[in-house]
From TrEMBL:
Its cofactor is Fe(2+). It comes from Actinophytocola xinjiangensis. Keywords: Antibiotic biosynthesis, Iron, Oxidoreductase. This is TauD/TfdA-like domain-containing protein. GO terms for molecular function: oxidoreductase activity. It holds the Pfam family TauD. Residues 27-326 form the TauD/TfdA-like domain. The lineage of its organism: Bacteria, Bacillati, Actinomycetota, Actinomycetes, Pseudonocardiales. GO terms for biological process: antibiotic biosynthetic process.
Length: 337
């Protein structure tokens, strides 16, 4: 006698009838698609709904999928590949992460009491993912949300004179890698071969110099704004408000500047012509993102897809264990920087 069959997943043969749609907030930003019956396979549903999901992302900036069957880290990766088969690695890192499945990473591994300001993923680089995927494997006991902000709301609120100066000059990022400063360069570039790092820097228009026993300093001028490849919208797209020295606590900032100088800090941002960015400008941008932020509580099994041009994301502090995984796709290369 054959063994009894295990539980069968429901296929998404009629996507619209098997889900209900609502908004994460009171405005048309952030769509929530919720399964109306248990066991609905998200990978299958995404495969059969790919074109509609792309249209939803262009319109709403982010889509949360809730109540679907996902099957852990590897299953989450399969769900992301249903939208784009080519997931991305993570080079030129700005934060510690661990790869837990093929092209599936932990979210930024900062301590649980820290806020991570809203930002566009890898907007300090010459290339970046257009789509981000988040999977809540374990929801925090409290807090730990991933707030989102719409660039359609934020960009018009940045004063024209600030936008114009950044657009004219771009942003100059200076980073110092080393065991006593920031991440080691071996972690950032995922190699221990200096020649590979040098080749990457040359190809990406990044100046570099080896420092000390095993340190590296890079300098690169990147875009301050970007144009969405499908909608044609212009968005604020840089890491100045994260990398700028003013984001460091004053006592730490003073000690670091005294010891290393402004160019020796773990990371710093200037106008593209090398002039310092005023603290108040950085504060204004950060305040604008915070005012526009919209958050929702994670539930285990949630999958969030974010258009990296149209929306920024961050992380709230939390208590208890939390595990949110990340994948990326749709590499965009900025040929103009």
């Amino acid at each position: 006698m054959s063994a009894p069959a295990g539980p069968r997943r429901r296929r998404a043969s009629a996507p619209a009838e098997l889900t209900r749609r609502s908004f994460l907030t009171d405005e048309p930003f952030g769509l929530c698609v919720e399964a109306t019956m248990p066991g609905l396979d998200l990978r299958v549903w995404l495969t059969e709904s790919r074109a509609g999901i792309r249209a939803d992302l262009d319109r709403y900036g982010a889509v949360l999928f809730r109540g679907f069957a996902v099957d852990g880290a590897a299953g989450f990766g399969d769900c992301a590949r249903a939208i784009d088969p080519e997931l991305l690695g993570y080079l030129e890192r700005a934060a510690p992460r661990t790869e837990v499945a093929d092209k599936v990473f932990t979210s930024t591994e900062f301590t649980s009491d820290e806020w991570i300001p809203l930002h566009h993923e890898m907007s300090y680089s010459h290339n970046w993912p257009s789509l981000l995927y988040f999977y809540c494997d374990l929801a925090a006991e409290s807090g730990g949300g991933t707030p989102l902000a719409s660039e359609r709301e934020v960009f018009p609120l940045i004063p024209a004179q600030i936008r114009e100066r950044f657009e004219r000059h771009g942003v100059r990022y200076v980073r110092n890698y080393g065991p006593d400063l920031d991440l080691p360069w071996q972690v950032v570039f995922q190699t221990g071969d200096r020649a590979e790092v040098e080749a990457y820097c040359r190809d990406s228009g990044t100046e570099f110099v080896w420092t000390g026993a095993d340190g590296l300093r890079t300098t690169a001028v990147r875009q301050a704004v970007a144009t969405h490849p499908r909608t044609g919208e212009t968005v604020w797209f840089n890491h100045a408000h994260l990398f700028h020295v003013s984001t460091t606590p004053p006592e730490v900032r003073a000690a670091l500047v005294a010891e290393f100088g402004l160019d020796g800090l773990p990371r710093n941002a200037f106008y593209g012509d090398g002039q310092p960015i005023e603290d108040e400008v950085v504060g204004l941008v950060g305040d604008t993102y915070r005012a526009a932020a919209r958050s929702f509580p994670w539930r285990a099994g949630d999958v969030l897809v974010v258009d990296n041009f149209l929306a920024t994301h961050g992380r709230e502090p939390f208590t208890g264990a939390r595990r949110v995984l990340v994948a990326m796709s749709d590499l965009y290369v900025n040929r103009g920087c």
